[in-house]
Every structure is written in C-alpha cells, then in structure tokens.
Amino acid sequence: MPNMNFDQIDAVAQAIIRARREQQCVDAQSLASALATPEESYAVQAKVAAALGWQTSGPGFWKSGGPSRQARLTHAQLPVEGVWYSPAQAGNWNFTWRGIEAEIALRLGRSVNAAEAAALDGDAASAWIDAMAVSIEVVDSRWRQYTDAPALLKLADLQAHGALVLGEWIPYQARDWASQRCHVRIGAQDFEHRGTHALGDPAFGLAAWLRHATREGGSVEAGTTVTTGTWVGILRPRLATS
Fold it and tell me: What is the reported pTM?
C-alpha cells in the first residue's frame, strides 16, 4: 500500500476502536485532516475489524453507495453481529445517534472472483443477484460530529453504520425503480417517497462494489448481502424511555 500515512491511519483506527470499546463518541476535529484518500479510510476499516475480531471471510454483509451516480461510490464491510432479521430488537447493542434509512438489500447467488469482477458491467452484475429484501440501516457514528464529521473519517467509520435489519428475501427482479414507492412509518409519523433511490437503481453500483471487495485478489462468496443506498435519507425515530 504505497503512499499511505500509516501513523495517521493507526491514529484514526485507535480512536474508533476506543470509541467502540468505551461506548462513547470521540472528537473528529483533531483528526480532521489525518486521512488523505479513500484507500486510507479503507485501511482504517481493516484495522478496526481486525482489532475487534469482526468476521471478514465467508458470506458477509456490506454497504455500498453514494449520493448520486456521478459521485465516487464508497464501501464498507459490516460486522455480522450487528445484522439482524426482522422483527429485531437491538438489546444491548450500543448506539449513539440512531438515525434510520430505508433501503433495499441484494444477495449474491454465486461467488465472484477478482478476474470476474474486473470484467463486469452493471447488467452482468445484476444477473448474479438471486434475492432482494427491504432493509433498515441504523445510521450511527463514533464521531461527536456525527454526519458533519469529515467525509474520510465517516468512511473510515463504516460510512456512519450502526446496524442492519433485513426483511424477508424474495426473488430478485428488475423493476421500474423510478416509480417504486417507499413508505416508512415511525410511530404516528409517515414518510412516503417515490423513485428517490440515490442511485436510481439499487443494482447500479454492484460492479464497483464487487471490484472493491475483490481488489486484493480474493472472492466474494455466494450469499453475501449488500445494501446500496437510501430512499428517504436519514430519519430520526423517537426513542422509548424507561
């Protein structure tokens, strides 16, 4: 990994590890310029995963996406302990901010190696998806600045990921996503949008994600799940108090 500042990568990783272990946020301000590239953010992700013993082999769970098709897509492999099937209860899982995003999860029906990923286009990648499910990402942060933290620090922190709740799997099929309705209800609040997925199509970024996930020569296993962006932005649920 040439041209990386490993001291700064380690400093950011240690801050995130400390925040997770102590279950409290840390200040991003002193580290605001610590990371120079997305590759350094991904190096932080790897150090945190190794330190906390997160699974990084076999079928896993990822998030991938961006604010638009024109933006550079970013990616994060998620800790499997924070992926639950609906109906779900967080129990003692630690959160700090607790936003939620309504998403579509996609599941690979076959394994994909690095050579195959390098040759992919979007249509071919879609053909390798066997199932989809409505999902909820809990948006969270180890930074006190939450979504206002510098972009590369957010990416290092799994792009502000807290947990993932998956609905029932159904067979994957292309849809008219531009007219797809998304309805979210939180208590007495209702949010409804139509055709508002950030990438227009949840499968749009699959090729970029698979190339990222196999960039070191490995494979993405069949059964791996990826979520690819929100339909409604970040919503803040009201939390019950005891």
Answer: 0.93
